[in-house]
UniProtKB/TrEMBL annotation:
List of residues that carry O-(pantetheine 4'-phosphoryl)serine: 36
GO cellular component: cytosol; membrane
Entry keywords, A to Z: Cytoplasm, Fatty acid biosynthesis, Fatty acid metabolism, Lipid biosynthesis, Lipid metabolism, Phosphopantetheine, Phosphoprotein
One Pfam family, short name: PP-binding
Organism: Kutzneria buriramensis
Protein purpose: Carrier of the growing fatty acid chain in fatty acid biosynthesis.
Location in or out of the cell: Cytoplasm
UniProt PTM: 4'-phosphopantetheine is transferred from CoA to a specific serine of apo-ACP by AcpS. This modification is essential for activity because fatty acids are bound in thioester linkage to the sulfhydryl of the prosthetic group.
A Gene Ontology molecular function term of the record: acyl binding
HAMAP family, per the entry: Acyl_carrier (MF_01217)
PROSITE patterns: CARRIER
Protein name: Acyl carrier protein
Amino acid sequence: MGTTFESVVAVLAKRFDIDPAEVSRESSFDDINLDSLSQIEFGTALNKAFAVDISDDEMAELSVIGEVVDKLDEKLAEKV
């Protein structure tokens, strides 16, 4: 498995058919055309892929991919 960022981009590419080359840590959900419902769906996909629990409320507080990566890293560190 690559970095958390690479794994997050892979989830976006697979689930939402987003070109990985168009995603950076600074990309907002608007930049990659994810509406609020899709953001919740994205959170669910991340929870499944990483075996963590990011709540819908936590996902709603995140606005760019870098924040999602940081939140995932935080959740993964809690599991250790």
